[in-house]
Amino acid sequence: MSAPRTPEEALAFLAQLNPSGIKLGLERVREALEALGHPERQAPVLHVAGTNGKGSTCAFAAAALQAAGHRVGLYTSPHLVRVNERIRVNGEDIPDARFGQRILEVLERYPSAVSEPMTYFEFGTVVALWHFAQERVDVVVLETGLGGRLDATNAAESTVTAVTPISFDHMEYLGHTLGAIAGEKAGIFKPDVPAVVSRQEPEALEAIARRAGEVGAPLRVEGRDFAIEGEANGALTYRGLSWRLSGLSLALRGPYQRQNAAMALACLESLAARGVTVSPEAAREGLATARWPGRLEEVGQSPTVVVDGAHNPAGVQVLLEALKALYSGRRLRLVFGVVADKDRGPMLRALFPLATSVDLTPLDTPRSLAPERYVDEARALCPEVRVHGSLVDALASARSRSGPDDVVLCTGSLFLVGRVKALPERNLGALHQAP
After folding, report:
1. pLDDT score recorded for residue 92
2. Which superfamily does CATH assign the domain made up of 7-289 to?
């Protein structure tokens, strides 16, 4: 692979790296960051790990920090439509020209990335941290990619860490018990750095507490140290480490977002205690204005077309709670696709019996599981199942059989969500405009 010379060639260089490649370890990232003069040390860092909810937690926290007047760098993954979504400053995706220029700057200072290519995620992480330093952000919010202990983002020096709910996912890399997975996620804990933790299964919480004790990280646990509760009028109240906030509203939909909001508020309190100025009023504004695409997002009407990134059994369970709360009594038409390395059985058994029809689609990734491989499982759970060769055909099939009050739910993978969001308006119906 030759070194790129223009921003356009630099973007092509990034695209040539294997997006599905996984190589856990911090050595390459640390070496690159040292060559760059340690950009990861230029601003306080909120570092968030977990299986589900970490992206929404990051979105809430970043919105609140921006409302407090900070210039905020946000790094998340995966992207839905364009890789630029992964690197944002004050809510704006990095522009192509700037993105390409940052890649050139990194390669100029660390040419080893050309001769000995890093993984897509490793290199993207380094470019993001370099970009945030050049943009002089006041605070960085980092979402882990996979795991925590050996995730590329763990090369950053955290000011506050957080672990959202943990469930079974990526077991081939993280372990086959909740305790083992939790131990890997809690590998982001640092000595004397506050660790904010959501409610967990006992096995997971035990492993998290053990790790916190080993490294000397002060532990703050949802339900014990902070929580959000519902009020009679439908608003929310937060009881935290020092804050008491009532009358809260959330921009992100679904009952499960309460937990993500509670996590974000506890992280913000912890950041404030460590010198990152953020007021309760800014936190309130952040919860009410945060945006996080692909999670219970309505993208079409008549019928309502909803995309949700649930891609593991725990994610499907919280999705079911949200469907009951938001679309009770409406017929469900399911457009579903899944990657081969996911535990699809529990997902199918939870979702498919609730659907009037299921349209199966392959995904635009080498990891896609062909619908023909699990169509018999699907037909044992839902009487009306069709197999399609493309997402466009699957979505058209679901919409053509739907009445105006039906809900067409596209789920099973973030790859699927991203492809739906990239489709032209004619495939979705009248686009829904978020309030």
Report:
1. 97
2. Mur-like, catalytic domain (3.40.1190.10)
